[in-house]
Amino acid sequence: MAKQEILRGQLIEEETMITVDELCRHCAVRVEQVITLVQEGILDPADDVAGPESADRWQFHISSVRRVRTVLHLQRDLGVNLPGAALAVELLDRIAELER
After folding, report:
1. Quick one: residue 81, left, alpha or beta (phi over 0 = left, psi -120 to 50 = alpha)?
2. Bridge partners of 19?
3. C-alpha distances in angstroms, 89 versus 29, 40, 74, 86?
4. What is the separation of C-alpha 84 from the centre of its chain, rounded to a whole number of angstroms?
5. pLDDT for 47-80, tens place per residue?
């Protein structure tokens, strides 16, 4: 008989918010990289705390993890520059929205 494995995890809602530190940890990036992604328009902090000097207080939707990982993949594996990655992520979002 096959051994049954127990899966453990956390159900994450789309509205779940994470801190900039959590985003960095989940995506293995530095805060400086997140700041660059915000400045490029790839990420949008959920609160009204403006400017990179306030980055330690930024909050992001959990979907930002997917966006950052997609950008990293485009840059690392496909050699896409940051503006190109920003455009690609925007187009992927539009496609997903149309499919819904």
Report:
1. beta
2. 59
3. 18, 12, 9, 5
4. 16
5. 766 677 778 889 999 999 999 999 999 999 999 9
